[in-house]
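Sequence in, structure out.
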Amino acid sequence: MTLPAIDPATLFDIRGKSAIVIGATGAFGQVVCATLGRAGAKLTIAAGDGEALAVLGDELRADGIAVALANRRPGSEADCAAIVATAQVTFGGVDILVIASGMNDVAPIGELTPARFDAVMRANVDGAWLMARAAGAAMIAQARGGKVVLTSSARGKLGHPAGYSAYCTSKAAVDGLTRALGCEWGEHGITVNAIAPTVFRSPLTAWMFADDDKAKAVREGFLARVPVGRLGEPEDLAGPLLFLCSRASDFHTGHIVYADGGYTAG
């Protein structure tokens, strides 16, 4: 009997890889930066808030992580090209792209104006498409493969009664983009997958973790549908992220990975 030539120690090794993180200053973006940076990747971090971006850059450098800053959102072809160029000039190319940016606008459909709907779609869908397009072109030209990770949500699969018509629609579109690019870029050795979280601890969701009666009522109602019986923590996203950014996932593409404690399973 001959055991397969598998070395688990190298499967998740991303040391020296050049990674672009879009929406780096957001809750998930900071998880991405900490995870990939501490695993040895060189980071090009992008965000629209220049002050917050500079603070994050300083924190990452203090942690021994190589960082370049791009004070841009993926709002246009020019913005996306500039972000990619920063990674190319500073770190010699692009190996990993993680799109952690996005937004929500909660309102019943009758109150949600077309302009507000379009803003959600531009942030969550157009920006992802434009950024993937720019980074994908660079990866194809490099001819060394690559990893693209988009950010979806449990709401890409499930509806929501509280005015999520724009958000659910946008995340379903992200799921479709993930599958389409996974098929399109497979021949180039580029995998495209999405992480789809449900509620996890962040400044936006901190109220759900509180001990007051309102938070407890909302939390208990939500947890009734989560098999593991708790809300998510940032580290719950780190494992799937590292998997999708490393060669451990070379045979996985076009997938939506639900980091949701089983919420979408039942």
